[in-house]
Amino acid sequence: MNRYLITITLIVCFFTAKSQSLKANYDSLFHYLERKDNFNGNVLVADKGKVVYQRSFGYANFKTGERLNENSAFYLASLTKQFTAMGIMILEKQGKLKLSDKLTKYYPQLRTYGNISIKNLLNHTSGMPDYMELMAQHWDKTKIAFNNDVIAALVKYHPKVAFKPGYTFEYSNTGYVLLASVIEKASGTSYADFLSRHIFKPLQMNRSRVYNTRLAKHEIVKNYAYGYIITKNNPKPTSQDSIKESDYLIYLDGIVGDGGIISTTTDLLKWDRALYTDKLISNQKINEMFSTTKLGNGREAGYGYGWGVVPKDTVAGKYVAHNGGWGGYDTHIARFIGPDKTIIVLRNITNNNTVDDVEDSYISILFNNKLKLPAVTANKD
Question: Choosing a second label site near 153 at 20 to 30 A (CA), which of 140, 235, 271, 325?
């Protein structure tokens, strides 16, 4: 064997061993989380678009015994916000709205909130009151609410804004519910149809959709990862629909924008790849989505449009990420833009445990190939 072939063989062996070590470390991490934190879900890790780790742990449906697989669709919870934000940016590209437009241009009846712009809604600087608290106080819990019901409640009860728009940052689910409704007004079609036509279908995200009809229309999606909750009174995985304290998961099931999308790890990787291109919007506008928000009080919020933004990090460089939590779902996506690495974790069991810095554990393996186990504390309540 000549020197050239020996060198190539050594290089191949090195990267094969490194890949095997990375997979072994991730296996160790998630098996640890299975034992300590009831981890049940799907994981995908990619390097420059190439999948370097992909596993399914546990069940999609505990009642039937159906196990998770790479095509299982999970409720994304707040990961939905990045798609809502993209919907707004696509409409801007089409000339159907401006980020400077006031909310009242589309919903004049919301005159209490006349100073709030679409941009304020996108970057959580609107100060809008929390719709979940509003609906908990005033909504008939025997009915499933939709976005128009939230708007009607805001009109009827007009709770005050928390601060002057643009002045400070306060994460707002209400803002993204209103953005979904703005998409409908500006496009003349439903939020679900707009995202399907302009995002999911062009990117061939075939297992992704808006899913706010599970309870309202008893619509069943095949290979759906149902949500489960573990509590002190329910030590085994229990359907989120059957826990009395979580009745809001039922009567708010029709609301979209802040949540409402289901997807898979494979589809989310397609989404990740598209964000390196101008297929949906220009690269300039994508960079705008990934830029931190400058506030009127002189500070800077680590949030863009639908994405949390970490401008600098000693290991990973600038990256954007988002978490989601709703009932039995706990979701996470992180995109390390410079080195082009991606972490996607979708789980469908939640509990009352405290897990310290689990995202750091994901990152440590991906960048340093070092296993870092997070501390898991089982809370009694």
Answer: 325
**CA 2/CA 21 separation, integer angstroms:** 29
- DSSP annotation of 290 reads T
Cite the beta strand spans of 228-340 per DSSP E: 228-229, 238-239, 261-263, 293-294, 300-301, 308-310, 319-326, 329-336
Q: How many residues does the chain have?
A: 381
DSSP of 122-153, one letter per residue?
HTT-S-PPPHHHHHHHHS-TTS---HHHHHHH
* Mean pLDDT, the chain, integer: 94
**Does domain 39-352 match CATH 3.40.710.10?**
yes
Weakly modelled stretches of the chain, pLDDT under 70: 1-18, 313-314, 380-381
How many degrees, rounded to 5, is the angle at CA 325 between CA 320 and CA 327?
165
Identify the pLDDT of residue 233: 86
Cα→Cα distances 124→89, 120, 165, 170, 180, Å: 16, 6, 9, 6, 14
Coil, strand or helix at 262: strand
Q: In the chain, what are the domain boundaries?
A: 39-352
